[in-house]
Design a protein that fits this description.
alpha+beta, 3-stranded antiparallel β-sheet, 53 residues, globular, single chain
């Protein structure tokens, strides 16, 4: 699946980045590494969702 992340309080859910991953957890781990944050810190700032095209 393709996942994207966005700033949690962004009502438009504008994608900051996307990735292919098997699970949402895998996507979160990848995104947190990209942003050089721990998973916990990443989850405080960002949310992850499935990209529907």
């Amino acid at each position: 699946m393709i996942y994207y992340f966005y700033i949690t309080n962004d009502k438009t859910k504008e994608a900051i980045g996307t990735t292919k991953a098997r699970t949402e957890e895998g996507a979160i781990k990848l995104f947190s590494k990209r942003k050089m944050l721990s998973v916990e810190s990443f989850n405080k700032i960002y949310s992850v969702d499935v990209k529907n095209d």
